[in-house]
């Protein structure tokens, strides 16, 4: 198994993602997009420390959390041992999902993770493979239109908040500067892709687009952001396997 970038920052990431804000209060748009999961068998792909796995289990799903990072899975299992909800965690590469048979799940979620994964096409093809016919897939990523390399917030000459977008068409791996101590992208980088690249990869995987959400005011690490922010930071999609 390839060493995961998040192995190096697992404890730090868990502190800022789990401890500094309550995700159950901040994932409203995501949970609404996922909908009722009671009685469903769901895969939380790139589950990290199991935040979404636990939220979905509390809502009645039977959840399998999958991640490449052994250290993130150790943290997830620690939470499970402290408060057993019945989540199963397994280590696997999202490009292959070699431990998961075809047509296993009613639903798959991949939250704040697909931009961390080098091969989005292979990952989405495997999502389609492990979904049962009619199964659903929900993904949440940093918004590719507004979180491209070196983009950032600014204030114009009238004191109005603006978002300066740079290098949108420059697809590939990038690492942000270290000016923000809570910047995950400064620690592990990201794989920037255009919006069309994501949507075409979904289509090529054989998934049917059902709904798109661009929630206002949520950051994956710090939670709520200023209402004056002019652009969304998150891009959410719900699909279904035909």
Give a topology summary.
Blueprint: H1 10-19, H2 23-26, H3 28-34, E1 41-45, H4 51-58, E2 62-67, H5 70-82, E3 88-91, E4 105-111, H6 120-130, E5 131-142, E6 152-155, E7 161-164, E8 172-174, H7 184-188, E9 190-192, H8 195-204, E10 207-213, E11 218-219, E12 223-224, E13 234-241
Parallel strand pairs: 1-2, 1-4, 2-3, 4-5
Antiparallel strand pairs: 5-13, 6-7, 8-9, 10-13, 11-12
Helix pairs in contact: 6-8
Please describe what this structure looks like.
The protein has eight helices and 13 strands. The mean pLDDT is 88. Helix 6 (120-130) runs parallel beside helix 8 (195-204). A seven-stranded mixed β-sheet has the order 3-2-1-4-5-13-10, with helices on both faces. Strands 6-7 form a two-stranded antiparallel sheet. Strands 8-9 form a two-stranded antiparallel ribbon. It has one domain (5-145, 192-241): Rossmann fold. With 242 residues, the chain is of the alpha/beta class. It is globular and about 55 Å long. It has helices at 10-19, 23-26, 28-34, 51-58, 70-82, 120-130, 184-188, 195-204, and strands spanning 41-45, 62-67, 88-91, 105-111, 131-142, 152-155, 161-164, 172-174, 190-192, 207-213, 218-219, 223-224, 234-241.
């Amino acid at each position: 198994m390839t060493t995961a970038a998040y192995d190096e920052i697992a404890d730090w990431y868990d502190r800022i993602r789990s401890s500094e804000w309550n995700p159950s209060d901040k994932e409203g748009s995501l949970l609404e997009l996922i909908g009722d999961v009671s009685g469903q068998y769901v895969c939380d792909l790139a589950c990290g420390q199991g935040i979404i796995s636990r939220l979905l289990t509390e809502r009645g799903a039977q959840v399998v959390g999958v991640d490449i990072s052994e250290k993130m899975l150790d943290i997830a299992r620690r939470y499970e041992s402290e408060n057993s909800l019945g989540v199963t965690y397994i280590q696997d590469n999202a490009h292959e999902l070699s431990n998961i048979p075809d047509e296993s799940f009613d639903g798959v979620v991949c939250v704040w993770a697909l931009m961390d994964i080098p091969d989005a096409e292979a990952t989405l093809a495997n999502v389609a493979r492990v979904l049962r016919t009619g199964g659903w897939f929900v993904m949440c990523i940093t918004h590719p239109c507004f979180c491209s390399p070196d983009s950032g917030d600014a204030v114009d000459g009238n004191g109005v908040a603006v978002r300066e977008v740079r290098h949108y068409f420059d697809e590939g791996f990038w690492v942000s500067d270290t000016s923000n101590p809570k910047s995950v992208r400064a620690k592990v980088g990201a794989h920037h892709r255009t919006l069309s690249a994501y949507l075409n990869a979904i289509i090529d995987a054989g998934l049917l687009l059902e709904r798109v959400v661009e929630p206002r005011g949520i950051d994956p690490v710090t939670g709520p952001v200023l209402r004056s922010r002019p652009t969304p930071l998150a891009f959410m999609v719900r699909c279904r396997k035909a």
